[in-house]
Write a structure and sequence with these properties.
Layout: H1 2-16, E1 25-32, E2 43-47, E3 53-54, H2 57-66, E4 75-79, E5 85-92, E6 99-105, E7 114-116, E8 120-122, E9 141-144, E10 147-151, H3 163-169, E11 173-175, E12 181-183, E13 186-187, E14 190-193, E15 196-197, H4 203-207, E16 215-223, H5 226-231, E17 239-246, E18 253-263, E19 268-277, E20 281-290, E21 313-326, E22 332-355, E23 362-386, E24 390-414, H6 423-427, H7 429-432, H8 435-440, E25 441-467, E26 474-498, E27 506-532, E28 535-556, E29 583-603, E30 609-614, E31 616-629, E32 632-656, E33 668-681, E34 692-693, E35 699-702, E36 710-721, E37 728-740, E38 742-749, E39 756-763, E40 766-779, E41 785-804, E42 810-829, E43 832-847, E44 855-869, E45 874-886, E46 896-906, E47 914-921, E48 930-934, E49 938-944, E50 950-961
Parallel strand pairs: 1-7, 1-8, 14-17, 35-39, 38-41
Antiparallel strand pairs: 1-4, 2-3, 2-5, 5-6, 9-10, 10-16, 11-12, 12-13, 14-15, 16-17, 18-19, 18-50, 19-20, 20-21, 21-22, 22-23, 22-49, 23-24, 24-25, 25-26, 26-27, 27-28, 28-29, 29-30, 29-31, 30-32, 31-32, 32-33, 33-36, 34-35, 36-37, 37-40, 38-39, 40-41, 41-42, 42-43, 43-44, 44-45, 45-46, 46-47, ...
């Protein structure tokens, strides 16, 4: 570490000899005078001492994105001398009147870095030239500084596609079923719509409701929040941001996108998206109701595989309202939302599992029926006022959740595999079972559980920030409070038999009353930041207080003379109170965190730059747990001092290439980033209480008072190649991580009873090494071809604690090596698109356990995705993929399935507001509701009541009303 610091200081001294002195800037914004909207193509023309224009526009734009802004448009930064002077420059934009600005700089502070020029408003030009249509090849993406810009019109999508279908096609992007987005292997932290949050970053709602036809471009960059931009503190960490930009005609007026459909197997769907825009305000209404339980879309390029087929049936309904306001001067902001969601799941699951155990495998068969309903209401509101020197705001959030659950399960464990066993056979095994099955049975359990819970939470965070005049000094304060209350009532029936004995060893009826549990969190946050020349410094102090009360009372109703009807509290139930499985607890935590930040940034005359960010966190955490159980008090206290490094980066930015013309346009850029991350994790004090919980007789948990602090270390090195002229993008990343004293749940398994005794342990030996390369390239005489490649190599070592018929578990180590390659070649001519794809993964798993059977398996997926526009308004979107698995040695797992999905669309040429769609899933009837999985612990075969194939007929209506031109 010492050598590393010395090396970076040496680099800064050497590079600084060539750096340009730019420590004072004039900054400002350019808008049109009527709607007060940003002028995206405005430019600044500077003049030399003789009054002639000087070519400094490219230099200003380069500094634009380095200063943390989204792009060079609308904001400008001009490097000037640190002295009293008058500056004259022109502001120009195509279609607008050029305006000359004269600005006087005086009384410059010693540590003042920027001076804000009043916003420049341009009037429209009195005459508009006739439009000229230029036909050119559609470029799918290009690199603009450190921003990747995707051109939405260059991607061929099916009629009626939503935003998620567009995102899934972006080169280097990966979209998961839960709405998480990766770009070149890195998670997108913020998804924006026209530069603003939408429903507080609820990706799925935005992805599934914004029509792809409304999108102009998608920009990916390292950005900052509105507060961070106002503070203008470059030491604040950047977040990977994806900004969806709508076309001009959808930025003002009313957009309506509605869809309804019905299909086979009683499938239905309905969706409404209505949004009204003007330059300052956006109001959005959302609605969705369906029972599809399926994220598949014909012709969509995503990460779906047959193993991801959902189980059960699902009914979903949702309604929401979102608003966003920003004043024309951008000094007042208000946004928020209110949503209602209800989900009902019905699952019928049959599972056969083989447990790989020393001394002989065991075989589990289970049948589970469950119904779960969740109702959720959420609201959030943000108010913000930003003046030149002062910013203050308020964040409010509330949530209410109600859950109702019902389940019934029958399960048994055998010492030999049982074929063709049914739920009824297990229920009646002690009366009608064969001698062979009774001889093989280890245990049988019948469990019924019903429960209901209510949970609500409220948050309030006022904040304040102040810029000290004529300096780079900033002070920000945030004070927050969170309060959460939860109440749960749960019923459980247990009937457990051991061996061939028909008399249950346990016959229990339990009622749990988890009386209102309270959690209060107070947060105080104070930050001071400053800077000098190329250095920025900040110091953050955070105090966090947590007060959590939990009470859980269990009543053993089976001890009563008459335990009554399941789900109804019998008379005299208080007499069945079970203190051994009841508890009350209060946890108090006080955490003090000190976070110094040092950021160094310098640019050089040859286009290179060097950024260094050092952000360690020093934390002192004191935890105090009072725990009562079975008439005894337990006190657990601990104090931990730990170091955390969320992102400690050495960032080297190189721009190299030939220099041509006055603009000195670079032809390619290289980015190199080194990261060192330290992630500590303190043990849960509830896991340290030395008590035994046997409320579930087959899974008994124990406390471990000797748990230690966990530390995870990660080192990574990235190289990104983003040329500014050619349409190439490449990201190479290598990383290595290891964990000291990893917290893991281990167990001892009793083969004669099937009982597990579970405990938390600290283990060493967990590590992973990964090498990843993401490559995208558009080529051809008309840029009609696109090539993408994703290469991954991973080596993972995992340690856990497993014991069989022992007093204590033994350390078990599993080593997994995976190598994968995903290739895609797309050919797009006009409105026709064909993509060929291959996805190969090899997995090799071994273990230190003597009885472990090594796994050497191959997964190969290959096929094509096509988007075709036909005459007369018809279109076809289809995907035909082979999914092949080999190497498991089991016929149920070593399979090849051909999956064909297709969508047929019709958009009437004279009524383009309407789109008729027919979706067909699994046209060749290859998917089943059977899922097979194997890992180091065992092999699982499960059957569910999923519906893998169906037809869906739907109709989409699109409306766009724009205000009349004056």
């Amino acid at each position: 570490m010492k050598k590393l610091i010395l090396f970076t200081l040496y680099l800064s001294v050497v590079f600084n000899a060539y750096s340009v002195d730019r420590d004072f800037w004039l900054t400002g914004q350019i808008k049109e005078s009527v709607g007060k909207t940003d002028l995206l193509k405005a430019m600044i023309i500077l003049f030399d001492a003789e009054g002639n224009p000087s070519d400094t526009i490219k230099e200003t734009k380069t500094m634009r994105y380095k200063m943390g802004e989204m792009s060079e448009i609308s904001f400008f930064s001009i490097p000037v001398q640190r002295k009293d002077s008058t500056y004259v420059f022109d502001v120009a934009c195509e279609g607008y009147m050029t305006q000359t600005v004269t600005y006087r700089v005086e009384n410059v502070g010693k540590r003042e870095a920027t001076r804000k020029v009043p916003t420049v408003y341009l009037d429209r030009a009195p005459h508009k030239l006739g439009e000229v249509t230029v036909t050119a090849s559609k470029i799918k993406f290009y690199n603009k500084g450190d921003t990747i810009v995707y051109n939405a019109d260059a991607f061929q999508l099916a009629e009626g596609s939503m935003l998620d279908a567009l995102i899934a096609q972006l080169p280097g992007a990966e979209l998961n079923d839960d709405g998480q987005i990766k770009v070149n292997g890195e998670f997108v932290e913020s998804l924006l719509l026209n530069g603003k949050k939408f429903l507080d970053g609820n990706n799925k709602l935005m992805l599934e409701n914004i029509g792809a036809y409304t999108v102009k471009s998608v920009e990916v960059y390292k950005g900052q929040t509105e507060e961070e931009k106002w503070l203008d503190d470059p030491s604040r960490q950047k977040h990977l941001t994806m900004d969806v930009r709508l076309k001009r005609e959808y930025n003002v007026g009313l957009i309506v996108n509605a869809q309804g459909g019905y299909g086979t197997e009683d499938r239905y769907t309905g969706r409404l998206f209505a949004s009204w825009f003007n330059p300052t305000t956006r109001l959005t209404l959302l609605g969705n109701v369906n029972n599809l339980n399926d994220n598949r879309q014909p012709g969509k390029n995503d990460t779906w595989t047959p193993e991801m087929m959902p189980s059960g049936t699902k009914k979903y309904s949702m309604g929401g309202f979102n608003y966003d306001y920003e004043s024309p001067e951008r000094d007042r902001q208000a946004n928020g939302y209110l949503t209602f969601e209800q989900t009902t799941n019905n699952n019928r699951l049959t599972t056969a599992r083989t447990n790989f155990l020393a001394g002989g495998d065991t075989y589990e068969n289970s049948f589970d029926n469950s119904r779960n309903r969740e109702t959720k209401i959420q609201t959030q509101h943000v108010l913000r006022r930003m003046k030149q020197q002062i910013m203050y705001g308020l964040f409010l959030k509330g949530r209410y959740t109600r859950k109702d659950n019902e389940s019934y399960s029958v399960g048994a464990t055998f010492d030999s595999e049982q074929k063709d066993i049914t739920m009824k056979a297990l229920e009646a095994i002690y009366s009608d079972g064969t001698p062979e099955r009774l001889d093989a049975i280890i245990n049988r359990s019948i469990t019924r559980t019903d429960g209901a819970s209510r949970d609500w939470e409220g948050q309030a965070f006022p904040n304040f920030a102040y810029k000290i005049p004529k300096s780079r000094d900033r002070i920000s304060i945030e004070i927050g409070v969170k309060y959460r209350q939860n109440k749960e009532e749960r019923w459980r029936d247990h009937n457990i038999n051991y061996g061939a004995d028909p008399v249950p060893a346990y016959r229990r009826r339990q009622f749990f009353d988890n009386s209102p549990n309270h959690t209060l969190t107070l947060i105080n946050n104070l930050t001071y930041s400053t800077g000098y020349r190329n250095f920025s410094f900040s110091l953050n102090y955070e105090y966090r207080f947590l007060d959590q009360e939990k009470d859980s009372y269990m009543y053993a109703l089976d001890r009563l003379p008459d335990m009554g009807i399941f789900g109804v509290i019998p008379a005299g139930y208080l007499d069945s109170f079970d203190p051994a499985n009841s508890y009350t607890s209060r946890l108090i935590e006080n955490t003090h965190t000190l976070k110094p930040v040092v950021w160094y940034d310098t640019g050089f005359s040859n286009g290179n730059s060097l950024n260094i960010l050092f952000t360690p966190s020093l934390a002192l955490k004191h935890s105090h747990l009072d725990y009562w159980r079975d008439g005894r008090d337990y006190l657990v206290t601990r104090s931990d001092f730990f170091v955390k490094a969320a992102k400690s980066d050495i960032h080297i930015d190189l721009g190299l290439g030939r220099v041509g013309g006055k603009r000195k346009r670079r032809q390619f850029r290289n980015f190199m980033v080194y990261r060192w991350i330290i992630e500590p994790k303190t043990p849960n004090l509830m896991d340290m209480v030395d008590v035994v919980n046997d409320s579930d007789p087959l899974n008994i948990t124990e406390g471990n008072p000797d748990l230690k602090l966990e530390y995870k270390h990660t080192h990574s090195l990235e190289w990104k190649y983003t040329p500014e002229v050619r349409h190439i993008m490449n990201m190479l990343r290598g990383s290595y991580s290891w964990t000291d004293d990893a917290l893991t749940r281990g167990y001892v398994y009793n083969t004669s009873t099937g009982v597990r005794r579970i405990r938390t342990y600290n283990v060493n030996g967990n590590s992973s090494a990964a090498l990843t390369d993401n490559f995208s390239f558009q080529f051809g005489s008309k840029d009609q071809f696109s090539l993408s490649s994703n290469t991954n190599a991973n080596l993972m070592r995992y340690s856990d604690m497993i014991g069989v018929d022992l007093d204590e578990p033994a350390l078990s180590k599993v080593r997994t090596w995976t190598l994968s390659e995903k290739l895609g070649l797309t050919w797009q001519i006009g409105q026709q698109s064909l993509q060929l794809g291959v996805d190969y993964t090899n997995r090799h798993t071994t273990s230190s356990r003597e009885d472990f059977a090594a796994i050497d398996a191959d997964h190969l997926n290959y096929g094509f995705i096509g988007q075709f526009r036909l005459p007369g308004g018809f279109g076809i979107s289809t995907d035909f993929i082979f999914y092949s698995r080999k190497g498991y040695g089991i016929k149920e797992l070593d399979t090849t399935d051909a999956i064909w999905n297709m969508r047929l669309t019709y958009c009437p040429p004279r009524a383009k507001k309407w789109v008729f769609m027919v979706d067909g899933f699994d046209m060749l009837r290859q998917l089943s509701n059977v899922n097979y999985a194997v890992n180091a612990a065992g092999r699982t075969v499960s059957y569910s009541n999923a519906l893998p194939r169906y037809l869906l007929f739907s109709l989409q209506y699109r409306l766009n009303i724009q205000p009349k031109k004056r």
